[in-house]
Amino acid sequence: MSRLMRVFTIVTAVLMAVAAPASAATPEQIDAALAKAKAWLYKAQKPDGTWEQSDAPQANQVANSQTGGQWGGRTAIATYALLAAGESPQDPRLAKAIEFLKKADIRGTYALALRAQVWYFLPHTTEVKQLMARDANLLMRMMLTQGNALGHYPYLPGATDYSHSRSQYGVLGVWAAAQMNAEIPQRYWQAVEAGWLQNIHPSGGWTYKHPKDTTYPVTPGMTAAGVASLYIMQDYLYATRGLDCKTYRPAPSDRAIEAGMAWLIKNFDKVATSQKYDRDFPFATLYAIERVGVASGQKYFGTIDWFDKGANWLLKVQEPSGSFRKGTHQAIGELPATCFGILFLARGRAPIMMNKLQYDGSWNNRPRDAANVARWAGRSFERELNWQIVNLKGAAAADLHDAPILYIAGNEALKFSDEDKKTLRAYIDQGGIILGHADCNAAAFTRSFQQLGKELFPSYEFRVLPDDHPIYTINFQRSHWRNPPQVHGLSNGVRELMLLIPNGDPARSWQMQAVGGNEAAWQLGVNLYLYATDRDVSRVRGQTHYVAADDKIKPASTIQVARLQYDGNWDPEPGGWQRLASVMHNQQRVTLKTTTVKLGQPIEGKIAHLTGTAPFQIDDAGKDALRNFIQNGGTLVIDAAGGSSEFASSAEALISELLPDAKLETLPANHPLFSATGKAIEKFEYRAAARRMLGSLDGPRLKAIRQGDRLAVIYSREDLSAGLVGQSIEGVVGYTPQTATELMARILTHASK
Questions:
Q1: 220 and 278 in contact (C-beta within 8 Å)?
Q2: CA dist., res. 751 & res. 607, Å (int)
């Protein structure tokens, strides 16, 4: 295990159990803050589309001035921030700015590097690639190559005075070009790495220059700049480490990254404060912190969620006008500060495509696999995607739901404790998918992952996914792939619970950023994410479908439900009922109690629920029990889990046999059931698969059999059970999770009266 892998272990192992602060900014608050900040930027834009303070560089201004050597940088950073926050380059306001940037004679390191970020966010046309190549070449030629300035940058071409601040931006500009497949010589990355390594401070952090060249203190901003820059170097200098699953040679930058991360953790109280810790640049520091957080995959710096802390502080210092500067000592000006605030919030809150599991074993043969596939997938969706490292030590399953996929990679047999297995099972029950990847096509990993599936879900078995499975067709088509990877799946009949890639080794291509000729590996990654989210890539960091019961709320009533067990797949989504219980506790002050009743035994109470995913038969004793239950005033609730037509056919035959003289009738939208909790359902929404099968829908499709003033049977051919879990997933014919949850809560409330 490399030193860098050990630092992951040290930093991550104890942190997953740390709860996010109660005061964490909500996604809605961050949305509002971003909207205000973007509005302020647009209001500050000049009629010519720029944000410049002069029409041209001023000869009498110094090299670091926004009207002198860094002229053009204000427009570049404002355009970059707006694009990163989701604004369209076709917006007439941004189109003007982009046209200015295409023609502007920009020379300064900061301004050039920020303009390169704009090119990265535009469609990669021939023109844009040429513009990027031009700026990348200018930046590479500007890099210094001697002494303590090796691998670092001056303000302007031809100058020799360097700083780590300028250098981080120079590297970011070239990196943006590399991500657009520009040819960047290895010697460039080697020089940059050498420069950061030789200039590290004995404390483990970085100051403004080499420690011998300055009295400037070590700061969070410069240290984050060093760590983030070295992470980029690892992508381009050490991508082949661990590819053979046998040797893992430490990189020269491993120790420096470890030291830098340790310094940041120790000094994280100096980040996102209004005190003058970082020489008047708290907003630029946050931008650097965001890059480290995303690059490292770390959710916590020490015990602190870096995004939550930064977001809370930004919301606190945001002016009523929308800009970011209130109560701070910062020297870069209101516009750059606001742009850095936007960049931190927009990029740091990006959806997390997958969590990579750190465990005792060969979990990190390919340290950059998840990071690289998330970045590539984000380009496919034209939005940023992030990734994270997670650990099961002390973690609850709820801690894993930042992402819809838990990625477990390795080349050795997995060895999880019983407690770990409980956590993994709970994560899946709560809607997550576990993706196993056999690095180097390792048979030992494959066998152990399949065995894990058997232990977690004894009733289900892995099988090879059919060619028409959504994972092969949802966006990119498997039929177009050359040498397509094979995927095995373990399903509950509604959704895939566990997925396994036993061969093909797509993570090898992810690690090496090798796309050409290996498109199938990358396109499979995109398809997996789209499948796990039902094509919805909008859920940002901090949003989760998981619901926990609020202990502060005291229940006022109880509803009991008999879950009916028969010989078949009677309980495909047990986690849905756990989540529904929390929802009803929090929203209605109701305790939902479920009991399992084997059909044939007496059914107590007012409500019984029957579901499944396949054809089924119930013996005479079971039918008699159901008849007695209905005749005694009970309500039988039935839904076809996943929208299974096979189950629905059996259920409809059963209903006809139980109540041969009755008829199922669709309930009108104004039926009291739909407002049973005191509030009517405002909108009935269906999943994509249901809309494809059933057409445009805007009303309920619940059917029922009335007996006097009550509903004896409530039946949904469309899925409710999977919807209760809360996580959207492709292929379910039914209501969206929100609508399914609202419907079932009202069904139970109405039937319990």
A1: yes
A2: 7
* C-alpha–C-alpha distance, residues 275 and 327, integer Å: 9
Q: CB 85: neighbour CB atoms within 10 A? A: 19
**DSSP H stretches of helix in 200-333:** 220-237, 252-266, 282-296, 306-317
**CA of residue 302 relative to chain centroid, distance:** 21
Q: Give the side-chain half-sphere CA count within 13 A for 475.
A: 20
**3-state DSSP call for residue 109?**
helix
pTM here? 0.93
Structure tokens at 270: 């100096």
Say if CB 89 and CB 138 are below 8 A apart.
Answer: no
The length of the chain in residues reads 753
Alpha helices in 272-417 (DSSP H): 282-296, 306-317, 334-348, 369-381
Residue 538 tokens read as 């909008």
Please list the rounded mean pLDDT of every run of 10 residues in the chain (753 residues): 46 40 79 98 97 92 92 98 96 98 97 98 96 98 97 97 97 97 96 98 97 95 97 93 83 94 95 64 94 94 94 94 78 89 96 96 94 94 92 91 97 97 98 98 98 98 97 96 94 98 96 93 97 92 93 97 97 98 98 97 96 97 97 97 98 97 95 94 95 93 94 98 97 97 98 95
Strands 352-358 and 557-565, sheet pairing: unpaired
DSSP 8-class letter at 25: P
State the DSSP H helix or E strand holding residue 711, giving kind and residue range, or none if neither: strand 710-716
Rounded-to-integer distance, Cα 312 and Cα 306, Å = 10
Which DSSP string do the residues of 60-101 spell out, in sequence order? TS-TT-TTTTTTTHHHHHHHHHHHHTT--TTSHHHHHHHHHH
Paired tokens of 254: 């491993």
Residue pair 374/447 in contact by the 8 Å Cβ criterion: no
Long-range contacts of 158-164 (CB under 8 A, 24+ apart): 159/63, 162/209, 163/208, 163/209, 164/196, 164/199, 164/206, 164/207, 164/208, 164/209, 164/222, 164/225, 164/226
